[in-house]
Amino acid sequence: MTDKPGAGETTDAKGIPRRSSIIKDGSRAGRERKKTVSFSSSLSERKISSAADCISAMMEGTEFRKVRSNSRVYQRYYLLESGLQALRWEPSKKESDKARIAVPSIREVRTGRNTETFRTNGIYDQISEDCAFSIIYGETYEALDLVSNSAEVAKVWVTGLRYLILYGKHAIDMMASSEDSLRLAWLAETFSSMVVSAGQGGGEEVGISLQSAVGLIRSVNPGVRSEKVEHRFKELHRVKERTNGDRVTKEEFIEVFHDLCTRPEIYFLLVQFSSNKEYLDTKDLMRFLEVEQGMAQVTEDTSLELIQSHEPSEEGRCQGCLSLDGFTRYLTSLECHLFDPEHSQVCQDMSQPLSHYYINSSHNTYLIEDQFRGPTDITGYIRALKMGCRCVEVDVWDGPDDKPVVYTGHTLSSPVEFHCVLGVIGRFAFEASEFPLILCMENHCSPRQQRVMLQHLRRILGERLYTEPLREGEGYLPSPNALRGKILLKGQKLEEGCGGEEGDVTDEDEGAEMCQRMKVGNSGELLKELSDLVTLCKSVRFTDFQTSFSTQKPWELCSFNETLAVRCASESPGDFVNYNKRFVSRVYPSAMRIDSSNMNPQDLWKCGCQIVALNYQTPGLMMDLNIAWFRQNGNCGYVLRPAIMRQEVSYFSADTRDSVPGVSPQLLHVKVISGQNLPRPRGSGAKGDVVDPYVYVEIHGIPADCAERRTRTVMQNGDNPIFDESFEFQINLPELAMVRFVVLDDEFIGDEFIGQYTIPLECLQPGYRHVPLQSLMGEDLPYAMLFVHVALTNRRGGGKPYKRGLSVRKARRGREYTALRDLGIKAVDEVFKMAALPLKEATDLRENMQNSVAVFRELCGVSAVANLMQCVLALGSRVVGADGDPLMLFELREQYPSMEPQGPLPDVLRRVVSTYETMIQASRAVMELSDGVYDRILQIQTTAMAFHEMLHSIAVKEGLKGRKVTRAVESFSWNITILKGQADLLKRAMTEVKENMKQVHYAALTSNLSKGVTGEATHPRPSLDTIQERATAPARGSP
């Protein structure tokens, strides 16, 4: 062991404040550092993968920061005594026999900043959640709150202490017999099979060849490089002074396998759920799947199936046990990828009007390089259509020999014949998606060549062209479902009643813009037969929003230059959103982007713009966002827009930097645990194979949600860097948010890109997940991954984080209620005033319940991301009395499980019981009172909506003019949005209560804390079914 930080330890990095700055007493700063656990992958250093490793490290000792109340922090040196019966620390003003804690007196080891001392300490925000833990001991449940210099060291101590608590005096015997027999037996069998297959004499004593050993390890762990495996074997031979270095014995094979294929972060996770066993049995695995992975209806059969699929050892499969290697295989399998597989298929309602969807769109699809000199090629269409693109551009000009061609006019780009482009489109149009394809036709041809175009369109696309006549009076476009298998032409259309065969054409898109820049005329004549092919996507010029609201038809489509669109989004964000509720808008890049760079699609999606055309040939952040966004609905090219952007009467401003009315904000908790097999950046050669990675976690969405956080840099480790850092983001509009993980190589001059992965928030799977990294070009990086933990929770209002417990108790007095706005129209304002009381009652019901759950969670000593199942499971060890019997039990025969003391309780447990009762009362109130409150809100909303159609005329009669009328209409939409949103949140609160009670019921049974029921025995649940039926039944008066 050395003093040098290992690959997983905290290291200094310029620009990143060190958490050690919270140390108040620096008296030990100049003294020689004690040895600490190192997580470097060097062969000479320790790799933690067993309880024995943890306890050995604890006996060597570690420096911690001891946290006291009032911001006091002291540096202390802690170690486990050789008899394994006590831990002690120095320096201390106490006598030596009192500066110690007996292991038998320890009741619980709690991870994170989850004691009252941590929460009320003024430096809460400066303490890493992953480096903090608490030792709860004694009859009065005292707490020793400690902070380590790295998350790995904290895990070592937590794992070791829990092992000692569990096995007590028998810990030494258990360690001696707890060698990972499943792994050893499997590796021995694997090695023997290789000896037999090699057909070499001498058997296992002689071993196998070096190359065979390298191949064997890579067959199990393909992500590890051959050079590294070979180097490890040679280093081991050098340490053992072996002369025959081209042979590998079984012992050497097992040692190198253990070194290269053991991931400590997964070992720590395994023992957390296996009660410090070296494997997970079926019940352990069930608990992990339900508690952490969010799986429902998990049975032992589910666990057995998973074990049969992922456990490598035959012994483990027969015994129903998942070893560390099997657990690692499961966590790296597709089942544990971050992306929810439900979104791999079309999973959204596809029966709404076309204007209600975002549509995957390509700009100048025929180009494969820049806009000015790049070649034109049909492969651009093939690539875009295979990627799920549903709107492609065809820029058609007169060609030689009466053959129309496709290219960017007045540039040096090379042309391709129009019929070739149509042929490719006809072939690949519906390969990736069955939903309608829009062809943006920019027609610059003469009437003569337009006739050729018409012939090609009819011959090649035929019946797939949608040519049904327009239906006057239709308020919305047809749905994607109704248009499946159809190709829609977007282009100019002659006005009704235009005489003759031909008419003037006006091109409002890039062609006109380019011609204007080149000072070339762009007027021409449009063939009537070609005009008739355009039905649902007639191109019209945008003047202003008021003109569009009064004159534009649903089938008319405006194309916005990027500059104009951004200006509209900035100056009239609300009007832009309302415009896109009924009409389809298309935004294309500025003509100044001759390098084919891309605009940020999120800037336009937040305004509701359906078609944001990007240059598919240019990789980078913008294409990453676009590809990820359309992956959420089976990559079909259509994504349903957020409800607040579709409802006819709703209020949403695209530039909001606060919470969205009617939408409940969520907290996204992301813990970046580790990375695996991170490659050297492409083109980087200065550092050889050395990588110094760090990770950015970015949130993309509305302005209020955009944020980024970064981990520290892990020096010289791309194989398995340990980050162990947690971040929290508030998401105000979850439906429009995306999460992006970016891995960079820390360089002195300019950090270099390693890989990224972008995912819509709606597609995140909770729990422990692996994130497959992609290259700059969007290709998967072989075996390169991040290991993360993800959770989404409701936001809790009020107070700074370190005063949460206090702020919750005072929340009702200082609670902020969402206010309705006055319109200045007496009759309508009187209706909305009636909503003040039910809205207040709805907020109180919901927040009283959520705050009481949060206080109960804090007293249970679990993190903010924990659910009630985890809360009750955490209580399991704490409520055991001296005689081994529980001090309190849950009565599950009632509709709401009650917590009943079984005798006198210490103060800390009395507080737990009292807080639980408060939570049950708040939950009962939600279930019993919500229906009535919901009905009143809905009735007021219905009454107010009766004014909607005539609101403008009523405002004028009331004497409102100009801007005051506009404000009245906006305030009306705001109020309706609030009413609908609060009613929806109240229904969700009922569902939340149902789920909470279900979790308490299950956890009480699992923890043997149910009255009159032990173990996994089944218990009648009529009350729980009643709760479920009431919570899921439609509220009275609901539509």
UniProtKB/TrEMBL annotation:
GO CC terms: cytoplasm
Enzyme class: hydrolase
Pfam families: C2, EF-hand_like, PH_12, PI-PLC-X, PI-PLC-Y
Record region (Disordered): 1-38, 1012-1039
Keywords from the UniProt entry: Cytoplasm, Hydrolase, Lipid degradation, Lipid metabolism, Phosphoprotein, Transducer
Domain PI-PLC Y-box, first and last residues per copy: 530-646
PH domain location: 56-166
Chief site of localization: cytoplasm
Stored InterPro entries: C2_dom, C2_domain_sf, EF-hand-dom_pair, PH-like_dom_sf, PH_domain, PI-PLC_fam, PLC-like_Pdiesterase_TIM-brl, PLC_EF-hand-like
GO molecular function: phosphatidylinositol-4,5-bisphosphate phospholipase C activity
Gene Ontology terms describing biological process: gamma-aminobutyric acid signaling pathway; lipid catabolic process; phosphatidylinositol metabolic process; phosphatidylinositol-mediated signaling; regulation of synaptic transmission, GABAergic; release of sequestered calcium ion into cytosol
Catalytic activity line of the entry: a 1,2-diacyl-sn-glycero-3-phospho-(1D-myo-inositol-4,5-bisphosphate) + H2O = 1D-myo-inositol 1,4,5-trisphosphate + a 1,2-diacyl-sn-glycerol + H(+)
Annotated localization: Cytoplasm
Domain of life: Eukaryota
Domain C2 residue range list: 646-775
Record-listed E.C. numbers: 3.1.4.11
Protein name: Phosphoinositide phospholipase C
Organism of derivation: Hucho hucho
